[in-house]
Amino acid sequence: MHAGLSLSLCVAAVALTTATAQAPSSNAFSSSLPTQKIQGIPAVNPVSQPWIWPLPQNWERGTNTLKVSKSIRFEGKGARQPIVSKAIKRYQNLMFKKEDYPMIPYNWSTTDNKPSRSSLSTVVIDIKTNDDHLDMDTDESYTLTVPTSGKAVIQAETVYGVLHGLETLSQLVQYYPERKSYYVPNAPWKISDFPQYKHRGILLDTSRHYYTVQEIEKLIDTLSWNKLNVFHWHMLDSTSFPYVSKKYPQLAAHGAYTPRHVYTANDIKHIVQFAKERGVRVIPEMEAPGHSTAWGYGIPEIASCLNTQPYFGYTIQPPAGQLNIAHPKTKEVVYGLIDEWAELFPDSFFHAAGDEVIMKCWEEDAYITDHLQKTNQTLIQLFEKFALDMEDHVRQKNKTVMVWQEMLLEYHVNLPKDTVIQVWIGSEGVKEVTSKGYRTIVSAQNFWYLDLGFGRPRSNPYPEVQGAGFNHWNRVYSYDMRANLTKSEADLILGAEATMWGELADPNNVEDRLWPRAAAFAERLWSGYENPKGEELISADAILRLLPWREQLVLRGVRAGPLNQGFCTRNPLDCFQPPNPAK
Prior knowledge:
Blueprint: H1 28-31, E1 58-75, H2 82-94, E2 119-127, E3 142-146, E4 152-156, H3 159-172, E5 174-176, E6 181-193, E7 199-205, H4 213-225, E8 230-234, H5 250-255, H6 265-276, E9 281-285, H7 293-298, E10 303-304, E11 322-323, H8 328-344, E12 349-351, H9 359-363, H10 366-375, H11 379-395, E13 400-404, H12 406-409, E14 420-423, H13 428-435, E15 439-442, H14 445-448, H15 473-478, H16 487-490, E16 493-500, H17 510-514, H18 517-527, H19 539-555, H20 566-570, H21 572-575
Parallel strand pairs: 1-2, 2-4, 7-8, 7-16, 8-9, 12-13, 13-14, 14-15, 15-16
Antiparallel strand pairs: 1-6, 3-4, 3-6, 5-6, 10-11
């Protein structure tokens, strides 16, 4: 499969003995900020591509430097659309973030040193339709023009294209520390942009570790800045049941970690609306019938092998427990929850899971074995009927069903062709699913699982327990999910999701785990693998934009992890060199 690292990005050992920093005198900060002494940058950073993440499809730029008024106004009928007007308030703040001593100063030598006499003080917003419906097929395209004089213009078919245009405009604005002013370098700009893939998401597991509403909001904000448009909410799992059901409140009362670690219907409505105002869809996943221990704490009769010890052989990871697929109460509860979620989550996609079921759990359940004898069924027939009936109930709510790949490739369930299959076990699954004619969302764990590489999530203190490999940013960026596919198979890829499972991630470290690697993922989904001229988008160019974008995320309050040591952040061309073939 397509993987590997670009040799041009292998980091050679760099001798730093000749690099010296000009330190200010000890009392320099007491009176005024000293002139910054710069090591290498900006001279060695060519800014061959604009500092925009993800890279737009089409862009043209000039050589003029345009001052930006801090009292910039947004006008036009589109500026009064409710979602857009709220976004304008956010971007009037984001646009003017500053760092007096940036790790990566902009390379002002690439643009005219004498700013244009005019300044950018007005942006016109033109939307063709004020319809704010958001779904997979929503048009997210936009154009942005920034002249050297006059008004900038953002044009889009929908409000969501405008949101992307505002983000791009905010990234064009650069703070010039020595002049203590904001500028758009390399004006005029003409940008025409759209996403290559419709479905661009992040899965967050909030069952294994709980996230507050505010923490989820912060994630959604960061998704929108990276032009990602799906929040896949893995809310339920074996470990906890945090959803407060209207019909079955005992599920959360007994299945949540504490009364504080829950999500109410109002919480969900708030998050869905918050996400919509940032162009992000919220897709719920109802984990069933596997990974369902916590359901049984509130309604014991719907669970099999509940908390069986030792758990080995009954579950992938503790605690043991699956839904009892033979008990009539189980379907009643599952369908009742689907009904509630269908109203709370308006998106047309609904994830019905179906992954990692352990047959032994059911084979040793007396209720199930007795039912199989009475109905003359096999266990796999019972499982298939339960799964298909559950999915049909989802379809009755006018939803498109998503499931994990095991349903098709391991359990061989006869799924309707409108089912969307999420591939995760390995990149080879993309070929297997699309060759059968199914649409797919790609989450290949060997490239796009961002929670891996930190050891196995077990409490057992056994040194031989190994962890999976770490998917570093270039591995994330270099994966081509179209590899080995025919054109018709590649056309069945709706998009992808990078995942953050919760065994070893919680609100204290999740941002470092996600960013900026999820940004590398985001560019592949938005910008694609080639530009409109057919030229390959390569990591050797991307890193020169990803480094400053990571700094911008930090400036916006995201605890994004570093991509390299500070010297290489400031001087990437001195660090990113091919290895010495003689060694």
